Amino acid sequence: MAKLVLSHNGKVIDQYFLKKTSITIGRDKSNDIAIDDPLLSREHARIVSVGDDEIIEDLQSSNGTQINGRPLTRQILQHLDVIALGSHQLRYQSSRTASDADLERTIMIKALPRTTQSDADADAAILAIPVAHAARAKWPRGSVIVLKSPVSHSSGETIRLDEVVTTFGIPSEQLIVLTRRPQGVFVTHVEGKQFPSINGQTIGTTPYALRDGDLIEAAGYQLKFKLESPTEHA
């Protein structure tokens, strides 16, 4: 199980095991990890578990967040990453094998531009991760055909799954991710009371390996998955 080790001026203060799907970090006591530091925002950052990965994002904090000395927006955490928040540090420790970590090292998530809250497209959060891999591996390719969408996607539209992770839904309400791995393309529930269903069968919280022609229903979407030939990544 992954954990975060909190320190200040080189002295370890506490440790937190990542047992929940979503963990908030900030100055306010209502956070899962509350840090008494005036440089932190009330809600400063968040960590979301997706399958075997933990994704950290800065919640537009006033003073920002750094990871390994660089400004953070969103990023998949790697073993021994150091997160700097104000005058405190959180060191991420994971039990994942080194080979698994190498496949996704330096993965960064960049969100599409968001519109204002009053815009009908404000809830359309489709996130993508450009990736650089340390080892050469065959990665599957695929796409989804939109049969039904709660936002601006038109019926019949094809969305290619060219990135490692593509996210559908509304953050903090209902969210799923489609993840490309050497073993296949997986769909995973991230947030929300309703779990995704594949071909009419609920899958719960366990990542599900998609097959060609599978019908995905989640977060207000109906998506038909199409599997393509794998490509080689360096």
Provide structural commentary.
Strand 7 and strand 8 (70-71) form a beta hairpin. The chain has one helix spanning 98-103, and strands spanning 3-8, 11-17, 22-26, 33-34, 45-50, 53-58, 66-67, 70-71, 74-76, 82-85, 88-93, 110-111, 127-128, 137-148, 158-160, 165-170, 174-181, 184-191, 197-198, 201-202, 208-209, 215-218, 221-233. With 234 residues, the protein is mostly beta strands. The longest helix is centred in the middle third of the chain and has 6 residues, at 98-103.
Would you spell out the secondary-structure blueprint of this structure?
Layout: E1 3-8, E2 11-17, E3 22-26, E4 33-34, E5 45-50, E6 53-58, E7 66-67, E8 70-71, E9 74-76, E10 82-85, E11 88-93, H1 98-103, E12 110-111, E13 127-128, E14 137-148, E15 158-160, E16 165-170, E17 174-181, E18 184-191, E19 197-198, E20 201-202, E21 208-209, E22 215-218, E23 221-233
Short summary:
By secondary structure, the chain is an all-beta fold.
For the largest sheet, list the strands in their spatial order.
2-1-11-10-7-8
Distance between the termini: 29 Å
Mean pLDDT: 78
What is the helix content? under 10%
Give the structural class.
mainly beta
Rg (CA only): 18 Å
Please describe the structure with a list of short key phrases separated by commas or semicolons:
234 residues; six-stranded antiparallel beta sheet; 3% helix; elongated
